[in-house]
TrEMBL record:
One of its GO terms (molecular function) is oxidoreductase activity. Belongs to the short-chain dehydrogenases/reductases (SDR) family. PROSITE patterns: ADH_SHORT. InterPro entries: KR_dom (IPR057326), NAD(P)-bd_dom_sf (IPR036291), Peroxisomal_Beta-Oxidation (IPR051687), Sc_DH/Rdtase_CS (IPR020904), SDR_fam (IPR002347). Keywords: Oxidoreductase. It comes from Parafrankia irregularis. Pfam families: adh_short (PF00106). This is NAD(P)-dependent dehydrogenase, short-chain alcohol dehydrogenase family. SUPFAM superfamilies: NAD(P)-binding Rossmann-fold domains. Residues 7-200 form the Ketoreductase domain. Signal peptide: none annotated.
Length: 303
């Protein structure tokens, strides 16, 4: 009995890299998979049929999958993507939002169109698929069905602490955490959990960063071989989150780096300083803040 037998999953951006790893892993555990991928470049230009390659790999290994070439940045196409799963396999249980692009540059060199393109794919793409899937699961829950819906979004270290040259990508990945936490609240009563994973691996995206090394696809590494930067190293975590065993896990951000699962804890209060039932006086703030928070006057930055 597979962990995901009888489940139907959509994985966006599953033609390459980390998404392909998720698709292979979910299929291996018994899920029927809709492999979505627009098939463009790492910058999000053009389109192609990368999804077909992942479908062929799944079928070669005895699994069941169909390809879908929708652009997740387009709200209507996201609706059609959800419908594709229902038309092909009769239902939807798991939505993995993984599609992504990068257009890195320091802010003074970043054209506004590049900022918008990155936000469109990551933020609108995640929001739009969630919107359509939420409507489907809420209707099912309201009609008395027991729902074990799963949304697994994709964030990154850039969204959790910033990264030089990635204002667009970091903003997008932080927004995905906010979407995840909010949807966890909105959808739990309908039987849907919503979590975010922060994966790692040498993919087309990392290959676009100087010095990171060449990318390779997940199927280049045999299932019983270990490679620290295999793009599918986070896929077992995604398969578990997708299963009924993780019914109680929602609103979480979990990084998966090499062989480590890193459970994040979000923003925590570092220090609370009260003025004492009155407004603060700006001219007094230096004294109290430097004394309590910056004893050495070191800048409050982390590099
Ligand atoms: N590689 C890493 O170390 C790393 C680290 C943290 C987060 N991530 C995230 O993991 C996800 C997968 O990235 P990857 O590293 O595997 O890169 P990748 O380029 O190999 O895969 C991304 C896939 O998304 C697809 N895609 C892009 N725009 C799309 C659109 N509009 N509609 C549908 N599909 C679209 C691409 O065609 C591509 O196949 C991304 O969200 C990325 O931000 C990657």
């Amino acid at each position: 009995m597979g962990l995901l037998d009888g489940k139907v999953a959509i994985i966006t951006g599953a033609g390459h890299g980390i998404g392909r790893g998720h698709a292979l892993e979910l299929a291996r555990h018994g899920a029927k998979v809709v492999v979505n991928d627009l098939g463009g470049s790492v910058r999000g230009e053009g389109q192609g049929r990368a999804a077909d390659e992942t479908v062929a790999l799944i079928e070669k290994r005895g699994g069941t999958a169909v390809a879908d070439y929708s652009d997740v940045g387009d709200h209507e196409q996201c609706g059609a993507l959800i419908k594709r799963a229902i038309d092909a396999f009769g239902r939807l249980d798991i939505l993995v939002n993984n599609a992504g692009i990068v257009r890195d540059a320091a802010i003074w060199n970043m054209p506004p169109e590049d900022f918008d393109a990155v936000i469109r794919v990551h933020v609108r793409g995640t929001w739009s698929t969630c919107h359509h899937a939420a409507r489907y699961w809420r209707a099912a829950a309201k009609s008395g069905e027991t729902v074990h819906g799963r949304i697994i979004n994709t964030t990154s270290g850039a969204g959790l602490g910033g990264n030089f040259g990635q204002t667009s990508y970091a903003a997008a990945k932080a927004a995905i955490v906010a979407i995840t936490q909010t949807l966890a609240m909105e959808l739990y009563r309908s039987g849907v959990t919503v979590n975010a994973v922060g994966p790692s691996g040498l993919t087309r995206i990392t290959a676009s960063i100087p010095g990171m090394g060449d990318s390779f696809e997940p199927d280049a590494v045999a299932d019983d071989e270990w490679h620290a930067m295999d793009p599918s190293n986070s896929s077992p975590l995604v398969a578990w989150l997708a299963s009924d065993e993780a019914d109680h896990v929602t609103g979480q951000v979990i990084r998966s780096i090499e062989d480590r699962i890193i459970w994040m804890q979000g923003w925590k209060e570092r220090k609370v300083i009260a003025a004492g039932q009155k407004r603060w006086d700006a001219t007094k703030l230096s004294e109290v803040i430097n004394q309590d928070l910056f004893e050495t006057r070191a800048p409050g930055m982390r590099f």
